[in-house]
Amino acid sequence: MADTAAAGPAQVRLSPGDPAPDFTLPTDSGGTLSLADLRGRKVVLYAYPAAMTPGCTRQACDFRDSLPSLQAAGYEVVGISPDPPEKLARFRARDGLTFPLLSDPEAKVLAAYGAWGEKKTYGRTVTGVIRSTFVIDEQGRIVTALYHVKATGHVARLRRELGLD
Question: Confidence class of residue 10 from pLDDT cuts 50, 70 and 90?
Fold first, then answer.
């Protein structure tokens, strides 16, 4: 695993070929989901800061609208944030989201993926979710790790990189 020094302690950064950190987390539907449950399938795991905010809603709806073509190409989409499952359930219902949303309130999985740490927000440094997307292969290895992605236009860029456009 490659580490990149950030302001403060070193922060994890995953690279192609790295094993994707395993997890078991609560979902918006009241169950749990593990990376092991998805073994044998390609996964797009995306980390976002907060359900029901404008940027996160745009990004989630972009994934929702692209889900049929992603699934046709063999990809499962999973979102992860520090929000509690109840808020994720409201988000999913409000916006008609058709993929699982995972709750990581202690940010342990987000940190393992390098999607939790220091970032600039409105000119100040804060600690929180670094909007990121990971493509994981059928064997549980990282294919792509994208950090500091934009909420708008990111899904279209990812689709192009995956050869789906």
Answer: low
| Residue 56 appears among annotated catalytic residues | yes
The one-letter amino acid code at 28 reads D
Q: Which residues contact 14 (CB under 8 A, 6 or more apart)?
A: 1, 2, 20, 113, 114, 134, 142, 145
Q: pLDDT by residue (tens digit) across 30-87?
A: 999 999 999 999 999 999 999 999 999 999 999 999 999 999 999 999 999 999 999 9
Dig out the tokens for 44 from the structure. Answer: 């797009």
Burial class for 18, CB neighbours closer than 10 Å (0-12, 13-18, 19+): middle
The one-character DSSP state at 121 is E
Which letter does DSSP use for residue 45 in this model? Answer: E
Which tokens is 22 given? 């395993």
User: Which is it for strands 42-47 and 75-81: parallel, antiparallel or unpaired?
Assistant: parallel
Residues 20, 33, 56, 129: which is the catalytic one?
Answer: 56
Please answer whether residues 134 and 14 qualify as being in contact, where contact means their C-beta atoms are separated by less than 8 angstroms: yes
Q: Is the pLDDT of residue 1 over 60?
A: no
Instruction: Confirm if 96 and 83 have CB atoms less than 8 A apart.
Output: no
Give the pLDDT confidence score for residue 164 in this predicted structure.
Answer: 86
